[in-house]
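User: Run a structure prediction on this.
Assistant: Running it now.
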Amino acid sequence: MDPSQQQPGPERQPGDRTPESEPGHGQASGRSGEPAAAENPFARPGPFGRERTDRAAGSSEPSGSTEPTGPAQEQQPARPGQPVPQGQPAQPGPFVPFGQPYPAQTAQHPAYHPYQQFPGYPAPPAPPTTNGFSVASLVSGIVCCMPPLGMILGVVALRQIRRRGQRGKGMAITGIALSAVSTLLIALFFATGAANDFWKEVEEAADEAASYQTVGDLRKGDCYNLPGGGSSDGTEVSEIQVVDCAKPHEAEITGGFKITGFGKFPGESVLEPIAERRCDDIDTAYAMDAWAIPAVMSGYYYIPTKDSWNNGDRRVSCGFATEGSRKTTGSIRRDAGNLNTDQAGYLTAENKLMKAAYEEPEKDFPQAVPGHLAWAKVTSSAMGEAAAALRGRTWPGVVAAAVEKRAAEFDKARAAWGKAATAKDEDTFWEHVFEAEAALDVKTEKTIRQGLELSTAEPVQDEERA
């Protein structure tokens, strides 16, 4: 067998005992008396048997290193499967001889580099933004408040979108189109004169909305339309439409007053007589010229309801109102504020008679004899007061004679009313009443009115209205 093909012995493991330490192995003595080195059973065999150890036992050098005996030559390691030449030490294999230390292992592979992260894909570009002018153009075009503004904003938006690559081109174009249409419509609106009509309607609508007031807010001189289709039948109302007195209307406020002396709501039956008496005086002071009151108008008033009374309402509103939804034009106000002294003086004297006429009892004479007699007495006194008022001042020449004649008529009527106040029966009573009425000549009154520039249209009596 070729010595170079000799297989190495088993690898020595830590803790294994060497042959020298095992019991039963003798130690040969050398020439010097020292024990001979133990024979290495794993040594490679030489050409003449086992290779002798070059060093004595206990040497620290490995047995595989020997000094060359010949001249210095470059030793070439033997190739595998090739015999070792004579005199050349055997090359150590992968296993060290038995009893020698295991050589340190050297790294045969390069160390791994730490993990290096390769750069990923680049971030996608940000999406283009929407141009703000395009949004403003669209909003302006939809709202139509300033149509040209939408077109201007749209043009600016298109230029910026082209330069910056922004979004919003569709909104800008839509805003321009809507603004163009709105501008064209407005131009036609003004060119055809529709703007004036539209503005008038807006003003009328605003005035109408502001014209509604509560009954408690009505003041002297307000003209209004009756709620409920012109009904004046005592229907409860909360709001009333106030209108210009120069325009058609259905009622006019002459004034008002507050009710006192009651804690709880006294009821309509108590409030109505109070309202009638007080409103008669207020109406007469407001509309002193009874001939100027349209025949379709009569006294009218609002009293508090139970609910409004509980909420603190105590006001009574007096006035005149039409009947049957009929309308009138112009104010009936003829008071001391818009009459001259001659007009006011004459009307004051005449209205004494009208005030006395309000005292006529509602019941017939047989059911109210004392009331009728008292009414005749009051009227007789009013006639005397009216005659004294006419004679108590100086009148213009155009009416002076007529005024004196009217005073004489009042004296004659006063005497007749005095006889009626002492009548013993119904026939006598009415006989003297008719005598008093015949004493007053309507022609005399028209002459005075014409001279004083007052209304000359005779008022319609209640019987004629019915």
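Strands lie at 45-46, 49-50, 212-214, 223-225, 239-243, 251-258, 297-302, 315-322.
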